[in-house]
What we know:
Elements: H1 9-17, E1 25-28, H2 33-41, E2 46-49, H3 54-66, E3 76-79, E4 82-85, E5 90-95, E6 98-101, H4 106-117, E7 122-124, H5 125-133, H6 141-155, E8 165-168, E9 172-175
Parallel strand pairs: 1-2
Antiparallel strand pairs: 3-4, 4-5, 5-6, 7-9, 8-9
Helix pairs in contact: 4-6
Pfam families: Response_reg (PF00072), Trans_reg_C (PF00486)
Domain OmpR/PhoB-type: 74-177
DNA-binding region: 74-177
Amino acid sequence: ALGSPPLDGVGAIAGIRGWTSAPILVVSGRTDSVDKVRALDSGADDYITKPFAIDELLARVRALTRRGVGGDADPVVRVGDLTVDLSAKTVTRPGPSGGELVRLTPTEWRLLEILVRHSGKLVTRQTLLSDIWGSEHVHDTGYLRLYVSQIRKKIEPEPKSPRFLITEPGMGYRFLQGGSDGGEA
């Protein structure tokens, strides 16, 4: 539902859109155009209001799948000597016998994936905390600092002087594919 707590539907759409391009069809009783526009601008692909005929719902689902929304393969991102494969959910680096897998915990992967999918853009601490641990943890910034530090040790050439996983003090984090100078945990 678009207005249900603890995370409203528009926030949920934006959160889902942050990690997948799968089709999102909103089914709602809200008929106001403002609600529809907010949902669509947040990343929904279509919107249908109640009551509706089941054949209309099925036709909209068919249209979304026919258009191939979400059908594109996830990108493979090159970062320095690392390869981040969003589809395979792997990070590899060159090794003596070819590609060497960088081992990430599920939480480390989720954090890195969100940042990579928003490459170059600031992702706020609150967004990361809410997307990974839930809205009740939006003030637990210690989690983020710990996980960012762990990821940096695994992917940064010099973790104390990160080039890819950049801290925006007081705001959040930014992932830079081309690398940068500076940024502390």
